[in-house]
Design a protein that fits this description.
mainly alpha; 14 helices; 327 residues; 0% strand; Mitochondrial carrier fold
Length: 327
């Protein structure tokens, strides 16, 4: 059990800032490593007409990446990545920082380190980070979604971060009393809510994703990196962190993927259905009607290709940054 001094240190401003920086660095490095796959996954999940033909096969991801590179070069593979970095640093910083604070609160002793508490701490940290950074996630998806068919018949001109924000802000029908739903009326009266399209599906999906991710990470570390009687944990290696992080990524991705597909479709709803607001249930029904159960796992293959290495790198860099920053 940590001493009162170490507990107090975790709550100090210096520790919180360093913890956030460690998480932010980990998130940026991991996202950059899989940026091309991230864009392809968004195109698959949102059923972009230019890339729907590639879904459902292991070679589809490679073909999609090849098409993007042929048409737009490296810039096409990194389209929307600037918004990704703007979002991922605060997102990862808040997520890991929150977990750093919640871990001793929920699990102050070795005996209290149960899977339920690991899951709860991870889920809360994930939901907290999503709440504060979701508008940036929506802008990123809009930037990554733009292709020839989704924009115009001419050369593709990806929206900038600012233009994507303007487009989201201007979306929706005219505010005419009696002609639109109460929900749409609310969105029009409070434009900031437009930047939270798909938020309910995201926050719901974040519970199993972040919860399972931290649960698997903590469970595997407790078994393969046990704590000695004097309270010191077996020293981890980058290879061990990568392996445990990869397993955590695979498990969490499998559990939460259907929620991710629904939220992607809702996030691009302003482009596919600009005159109305898509509801969660309606979106799920459309996916089921069009593809059945498989529709909720469109792009899962590339999801594994992206999330497994991304989670592995994220946890590994997080541990490295914690050591460098004396955490």
């Amino acid at each position: 059990m940590p001493s009162d001094g170490s507990k107090q240190d975790r709550q100090s401003l210096s520790y919180i800032v360093r913890s956030g920086v460690a998480g932010g660095i980990a998130g940026c490095v991991a996202k950059t490593a899989v940026a091309p796959l991230d864009r392809v996954k968004i195109l698959f999940q949102s059923s972009n007409p230019d890339f729907s033909k590639y879904t459902g096969s292991w070679s589809g991801a490679y073909k999609a990446v090849s098409q993007i590179y042929t048409e737009n070069g490296v810039r096409g593979l990194l389209q929307g990545h600037s918004a990704t970095l703007l979002r991922i640093f605060p997102y990862a910083a808040i997520r890991f920082m929150a977990y750093d604070q919640l871990e001793p609160l929920f699990m102050p002793t070795r005996e209290s380190q149960t899977n339920v508490r690991r899951f709860t701490a991870g889920a809360i940290s994930g939901m907290t980070s999503v709440f504060f950074t979701y508008p940036l996630e929506l802008v990123r998806v809009r930037m990554a979604y733009a292709t020839r068919s989704s924009s115009s018949s001419g050369p593709v001109k990806p929206p900038s971060f600012v233009s994507a924000m303007r487009q989201i802000y201007r979306e929706g029908p005219s505010l005419v009393p009696g002609t639109i739903s109460d929900r749409t009326n609310l969105f029009m009266r409070f434009p900031i809510l437009k930047f939270y399209r798909g938020f309910t599906a995201t926050i719901t999906g974040m519970i199993p994703y972040a919860g399972t991710s931290f649960l698997t990470w903590g469970f595997l570390r407790s078994h393969f990196l046990p704590v000695s009687p004097d309270g010191k944990r077996t020293k981890s290696t980058p290879a061990a962190d990568l392996t445990i992080g990869a397993v955590a990524g695979a498990v969490s991705q499998t559990v939460s993927y259907p929620f991710e597909v629904v939220r992607r479709r809702m996030q691009v709803g302003g482009l596919t259905s600009p005159d109305r607001w898509l509801r969660w249930g309606e979106t799920a029904h459309k996916i089921w009607t069009a593809r059945g159960p498989r529709g909720f796992y469109v792009g899962l293959t590339i999801g594994y290709l992206k999330v497994v290495p991304m989670t592995a790198v994220s946890f590994t860099v997080w541990q490295w940054a914690r050591r460098v920053l004396d955490l």
